[in-house]
């Protein structure tokens, strides 16, 4: 059908053959095969010119419409591949909300055909069932069926409010943490351990407890600011609180292993532009914080 439409538009089989990179005999054979399949003559052939029959003209118009639709479909796929457009569905921990906004706002401003649907969830979202294009996760990964890209490593620190430090004092060694209330960010009521290390000494792993635990980073941060305990927090989130005097470092001479920040997708290859550029924008932002 595509060859037939090209023959009609070019005005001859030889001209169509040159445009299509085919031999004239191959084009002629396809036209004979097409007429045999439809059971009608589609072309008037003469030594001087080629024209369509009445049936051929009607058939050509439908073929041209089909080719235009195919071209539009290919162009739409090319647009999705090359230019960010459509809805980007992204899931991320609640604590990552401000970072996500800072990372993606420039991308959205630069591409008006792109929209964003955000799912701020501290639970593990099912990317396939909920049609999520991209998920951000921090810490240990457990989803073996997903493709993970490491975007950055975040150092973590222990912090407490100045009021808590004044009322209870602060631990002077890792083992002291066992005697202090620690705000535990978890999804279930599992036991929390904190491992600390410093140069020249073996790592210390301490079991910590506290009266407050939960799966909301924001709620636990509010509890920490109210003086309810010590909290483990990513460095980029702790830094503004430390600079504002709302929090103080706990055991600043000791450090914890950094946690990876990952971008998760269902597929590794053939990602649309909206996903590729979002991953790049988040990676670039994380490098700068």
Rough shape? rod-shaped
How far apart the termini lie comes to 57 Å
Structural class: alpha/beta
Give a count of the beta strands, DSSP E runs of length 2 or more: 14
CATH class of the largest domain: Alpha Beta
| Share of residues in helices | 40-55%
Tell me the major beta sheet. Answer: 5 strands, mixed
- Low-confidence stretches are none
The share of residues in extended strands comes to 15-25%
Reading the helices and strands in chain order gives HHHEEHEHEEEEHEEEEHEHEEH
Mean pLDDT: 87
Q: Domains counted in the coordinates: how many?
A: 3
Report the CATH topology name of the largest domain.
D-Maltodextrin-Binding Protein, domain 2
Using only CA atoms, what is the Rg? 32 Å
Number of helices: 9
CATH architecture of the largest domain: 3-Layer(aba) Sandwich
Strand ordering within the main sheet? 4-3-5-14-6
Describe this structure in words.
The chain folds into three domains: 2-82, Orthogonal Bundle (Arc Repressor Mutant, subunit A), CATH 1.10.10.10; 86-154 and 260-288, D-Maltodextrin-Binding Protein, domain 2; 156-257, 3-Layer(aba) Sandwich (D-Maltodextrin-Binding Protein, domain 2). 40% of the residues lie in helices and 24% in strands. It has helices spanning 2-10, 13-20, 24-38, 54-82, 97-110, 162-168, 217-225, 235-243, 273-288, and strands at 43-45, 50-52, 86-92, 114-120, 134-138, 147-154, 156-160, 182-185, 192-196, 204-208, 213-214, 230-234, 248-250, 259-265. The chain has a five-stranded mixed β-sheet with strand order 4-3-5-14-6, covered by helices on one side.
């Amino acid at each position: 059908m595509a060859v037939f439409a090209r023959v009609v538009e070019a005005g001859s089989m030889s001209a169509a053959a040159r445009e299509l990179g085919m031999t004239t005999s191959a084009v002629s054979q396809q036209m004979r095969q097409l007429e045999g399949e439809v059971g009608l003559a589609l072309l008037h052939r003469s030594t001087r010119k080629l024209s369509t029959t009445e049936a051929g003209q009607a058939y050509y118009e439908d073929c041209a419409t089909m080719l235009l639709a195919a071209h539009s479909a290919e162009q739409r796929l090319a647009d999705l591949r090359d230019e960010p457009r459509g809805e980007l569905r992204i899931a991320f921990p609640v604590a990552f909300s401000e970072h996500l906004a800072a990372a993606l706002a420039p991308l959205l401003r630069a591409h008006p055909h792109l929209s964003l649907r955000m799912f701020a969830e501290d639970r593990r979202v099912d990317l396939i069932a909920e049609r999520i294009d991209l998920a951000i996760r921090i810490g240990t990964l457990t989803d073996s069926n997903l493709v993970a890209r490491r975007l950055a490593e975040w150092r973590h620190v222990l912090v407490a409010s100045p009021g808590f430090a004044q009322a209870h004092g602060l631990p002077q060694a890792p083992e002291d943490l066992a005697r202090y209330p620690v705000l535990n960010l978890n999804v279930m009521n599992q036991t929390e351990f904190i491992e600390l290390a410093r140069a020249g000494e073996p790592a210390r792993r301490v079991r910590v407890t506290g009266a407050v635990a939960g799966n909301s980073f924001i709620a636990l941060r509010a509890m920490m600011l109210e003086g309810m305990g010590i909290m483990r927090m990513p460095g980029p989130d702790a830094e503004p609180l430390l600079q504002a005097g709302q929090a103080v470092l706990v055991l600043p001479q000791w450090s914890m292993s950094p946690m990876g920040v990952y971008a998760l997708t269902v597929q590794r290859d053939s990602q649309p532009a909206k996903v590729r550029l979002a991953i790049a924008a988040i990676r670039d932002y994380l490098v700068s914080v």
